[in-house]
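Student: I would love a firmer grasp of how sequence relates to backbone shape in proteins. I am handing you a single protein, as its sequence and its fold in token form. I am told such tokens are a discrete way to write the fold. I hope you can help me see how the letters and the tokens relate. Take your time, and here it is.
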Amino acid sequence: MLNEAQRSQDFPNLSERTYLNTAAEGIPPLSVREALLEYFADKQLGMDGRIPHAACWEATRELIGEFYGISAEETSICSCSSEAFNLAALALQLRAGDEVVINDLDFPAGATPWLQENSPATVRLWRSRDGALRVEDLIPLLSPQTRLVTTSLVSFFNGYRIQVPEVAAAVRKHSAALFSVDVTQALGRIPLELDDVDLIISSTHKWILASHGGGLVGVPKASADRWQVPAGGWFHLEDAFGAKRFERAVSRKGAAGFAVGMPNYPAVYAIRAGLEYIRNVGVEAIDRAAGPLVDQCLAGLRELPVELLTPTSRESIAGILAFRHPQADVIQQALQQQKIHIMAQAGRMRIAIHGYNTSDDIDRVLQVLNDTIRSLPQS
């Protein structure tokens, strides 16, 4: 992943293109394909396949715990991050007068459960300034009525990276709220510091290079009693097949309650392989290798007539750089013609840099951006 030989072996399809869109979709290494084939072989065993399925489930939870800095028992897997947030909303059982704090840099999955018409809570919006979420702007939103503060560690929108310890300290000092962090745009790309977080959530098809169909949930034991999902099912229940199963249903507390039905085992196999791959390379090694590429790209973008959306202090950047240009669609077409993949949406463009990227990738995207933008008619 960090040298040309390994990159060519593990990601052969990157040899013909420049891929800088991991924030949308990661490129799985071939080991993930092998894991999916392993699932198929185990599935062909019929009921006997449940034994290796269960072993893979437990191995994957161990890996999640390792990355989150908690035990395997404090982790679980649901179908996606959106499901995890909706189950969290069920667990909170919000009432009129309760308040939830969201922010304007977050992905819809973490913000919209509380905006539904049937949600009785009042939503407080933590607004960004100059692309950054400032703790001093959060504090006035906190009160004894605050039940939850939810945010992404790294924003999908502009790549801004919050400082978790600072935000957690403010939440604890000024409220009794739970603190939820979505690490989708950070897991597998930067080292995580998640002490004093009550709920950790991540998707699985981006930076950990796995597949769709997974939502990685972490609930530290200290917070488990405050997260009990009142959902039907069986896998997450304390006694789904007991003598009183038609009289009452009791969900397990904590992370276990977020796995409400038959696990999506194909995704679990892929997640295990993706996390194993990232662990073997090392997140710290990935960050050390990709960090200079981010700096290289940022320096190049600063030379272009674009509006940078990403705050540029080093501590505020992970792997995403975002900028705006009024002719983003035209620029995107030029990039695609050169087999360069970044994201463009409503004038906003986003470059995502992972461990499989190279300095040549950055040179190529900057060169095509420069040539294309300079050739556009000036308004």
In short: The longest strand covers residues 146-152. The chain has two domains: 4-28+282-375, 31-279.
